[in-house]
Design brief:
By secondary structure, the chain is mostly helical. The chain is about 60% helix and about 0% strand. The protein has 7 helices and no strands. Helix 2 packs across helix 4 and helix 5 crosses helix 6. The radius of gyration is 17 Å and the shape is globular.
Length: about 110
């Protein structure tokens, strides 16, 4: 029983704060976004992108400006009904120092 109590003490009180702290690590953020891309629902990726942006800099106006988007456009992209253009996603990822890439889907069905 002492072991489970120790584990509880190590658990973060607020998962969102914990997640945002972890997402400040660029490698963790990259992995988080890549895992979100696996889901068929693009909203999962957009939610993950929103989390990473929040961890990177909570000033969405500054992020939008750097991505050369309006603040309203950025919020629209990240909303539940967001349907961003690829160029917009690329601009936002660029702010984070990331880019999209195409990789083989194993097993390779189209040789």
């Amino acid at each position: 029983m002492a072991k489970s109590q120790d584990a509880k003490r190590r658990m973060p009180r607020d998962f969102k704060d914990y997640l945002l702290k972890r997402l400040q690590d660029p490698e963790f953020a990259r992995t988080y976004l890549n895992e979100a891309l696996v889901d068929d629902d693009q909203r999962v990726f957009l939610l993950a992108l929103k989390d990473v942006l929040e961890a990177y800099n909570s000033n969405m106006s500054a992020i939008a400006r750097e991505a050369q988007l309006s603040r309203q456009n950025l919020y629209g992209i990240l909303s539940d009904k967001g349907n961003p253009k690829l160029t917009s996603v690329r601009s936002v990822l660029h702010v984070l120092g990331l880019k999209l890439a195409v990789q083989p889907d194993l097993p390779n069905k189209h040789k």
